[in-house]
Predict the structure.
Amino acid sequence: MRLSLVVHVCGLLIRVFGLMFLAPLALALAYREFSDAAGFAVSGAFTVATGHAMRRAGGVPAETAVEGMRRVEGLAVVSTAWLLIAQFAALPYMWAGMGPIDALFESMSGLTTTGATVIRDFSQVGRAMFFWRSLTQWLGGMGVIALFVAVLPRLAIGGRELFFAEAPGPDDEKVSPQIRRTAAMLWRLYAGLTLLQVIALWVVGFSIYDAVCHAFTTLAAGGFSPHPLSIAGYQNPAAEWVIIVFMFLAGANFALQYRALTRRDFRIVARDEEIRAYTGIVIAATVVLVFVLGGTMAIGDNVRTSLFQVLSIVTTTGYASVDFQLWNDQAKVVLLGLMFIGGCAGSAGGGPKVVRHVLLAKFTLQELRRTLHPRAILPVKLGGRVVPPTVLQGVIVFFLFYMLTFAVCSFIVVLLGADIVTGISATAATLGNVGPGFNQVGPMGHFADLHPVSRIVLTLAMWIGRLEVLTVLVILRPEAWRSGRWSADSARAAG
Amino acid sequence: MRIVIVGGGQVGSALARALAAGHEVFVIDDDPVVADAFTTLDVEFIHGSGTSESVLARADVKKAQFFVACTGLDEVNVVACAIANRIGSPETICLVSRADFISESGKAEGLEQFGINRVLWPEAQLAADIEQVVIAPGAIDAEAFAGGIVRLLEYRLEAGSRLTAAPLGALHLPRGSLIVAVKRGGRLFVPRGTTHLAAGDKIILMGTPDAMHEVEAIVHPGGRRGRQQVTIIGGGDVGLQVAERLEKSDAVNVRIMERDPVRGAVLAARLTRTLVLNGDGTDLEFLESENVGRSDVLVCVIDNDERNLLASLLGRQLGVPKIITRVSRPGNLRLFERVGIDVALSARGAAVASILHQISGGSSSLLAVLEHGEARVLELTVSPRFQARELKRIGTPEDVIVAAILRDGRAIVPRGDDRVEPGDRILVFSTGEAVERVQAYFGGTGG
């Protein structure tokens, strides 16, 4: 791995990210929140300057070096850039008085579209700051790096590795053979859907500010809300329906939606196995929840609330249209189970992803059949195509590491003083990028009272969960660096 | 007539052998080893590539009436036909073995642009035939004609069958069906009202699909019980196509056995509901471990007659009630049936018969050859000059039966007082070499 290249490309990305501070800066000025405005200005300037310095420090490798980016370098760039961008995105929070651990937690929660918060008192936070929170989720939803791949001509070729390192589904799905076009088209669809939701929310009575903030965090499957009571604070059933629709879309594969829209053929959506499984899971979980919650509210409210909460958790958005902390344990365990499912691959949703569950289920069934017919050739297929064994191994390893990470993190959080339900749900909710958990970290609660080390651990869990575990773990392996140094040295020797 | 054959494989040599006596035959092949097979035949063998214009010129393609491309490579066949078409104007017949040149509707429209008059895909035809036999319980042969609106079934009558109770005239077969032939003691004949069927007779029936369903219920009263279990041995082109056709139906459970694990993986990727097993279909232990004896039908389509025969006999030993076997060398057909294989089918044999018919017969088209050439089903168009009249007044010869009249997309299984009109297409069942006479009767102009 060529360290200089990693530093250079990270610098490139960070410099562009600095420009994102302009939006909240403008808003802060408009709202006359001058202290925050200064924070955004300073953060932005600092980010651009650091990015520029890193780009220089990287030795400015020739354009060809970027083109020749290897997979492991792509993974390193994406993991490092995410970590660094989260630090920079945390600067405005620190300026506003948050401690560094909390600021990083909040900013990572935003970028990874988790939606877990450490803000105790929403009244102390300005409107521009809430907008920044929502904006970080919106950027993180489709992928910050995908956005930069789309807009930075320098990354036209090396961007391929970056794109797939950031969204490492089991299936490398594209809408165009060109990665830049793919990224651009997906971002366009994402922005279009966001605009639609802003209009829809505005029509049902949200202010433009609330509509934008919520559209940003719905399409990103993020879950931040400027309202301390989340969606429950608005008591607006029509808005809940609007959000239900857009949460569903946010949790579905964007590449598939793009293809269905451009070809005007919605049968390809109906045929897609993952979407079918996703829809099935949503319906099944809603039915169970309606049943479990029966009697506590009118049937119409029950159905809407159940569907809302199921979609909110399964897509890993994390909104609450009621305080589900007050629900009984039967209802809560349904939600806890959904945290381990996640959205579709190629969606804004986090978690292990529906397609991995589908593949695992098929693989298990085939292994059962194999005991009946030991000589049978039983490939696992998805959409009629054979899934290579290496991909299946990847899925199995993913689940192993996911559960291992989950176990280790919840262990630490509970050891450091949280009760078991809080510890387990907080870990599941951050690793799966969902947001709220139960008890102390329930939908109306916050993560601020957890032990500082727990907060750091959960911040890392969000990072690992967003980049789907392996991207992060691979670059933590010493070989990734050693083999690179060797090849760099030998290249130098050869040159 | 001058006939040029590109490709001296099984089809090419069978054609040359049959045509050598009456025609000027040129065989082109680039494999010198193949030449040996033709030294004893009265044909001209040209060593060279069938896609080379100079080689084709040596066979004087300009003066040829027929040009048959039957090498093992589809692309070579297509290109050879295209070149022949440019040099002269022979009727071109092109054999293909893959779906690449066939559109989804099963037609080969794209190839007409290359100047190809007729495309034959023997493996697909065989797979379709096997499917017909598999889905007809109890039948030992089955065919579908005119896009499925006419079916043919062949049965061996068992003791106690309702059909043996009385002479044919008193049996009241379902309207729309017809017994066109009976085979008894090695002799094939057209039955009359007075014919009394007996156990052990083979009967051939034709009719509309609905009527044939009723016939199935009469001849094979056991009928369909649950899902049919079908085991296919051999995962070549034919095996794959049979499995693809059968797995579309929910009433059938298909398993396919293939020796080569790499090919097995290809099969497993293509097939959706079929269970692909990696194993040798001639290995008794393997067949027993997979309970092959419990299958309703065993289809043996290994690309090797000896191993196919072995697999079929093992299946018989394990108690499979119906066995369908592919025979590569047409000469082996009779042998297979003699040792008790119910249905032996030859893809290339059917292709050769069809080409020979086109070359010699001309205007009608041969839809099926039954009982090793003793009977045929032809389709022909009644001449516009034909004077419309009732069937009983036409006076067709004894060995010719009008089995169906195709008019306005419907099939009529005629009785004596149904009329045959100019422009009708008719399906004719005939025994013996009655082709020319049949055409003469209807002033046939080809189907």
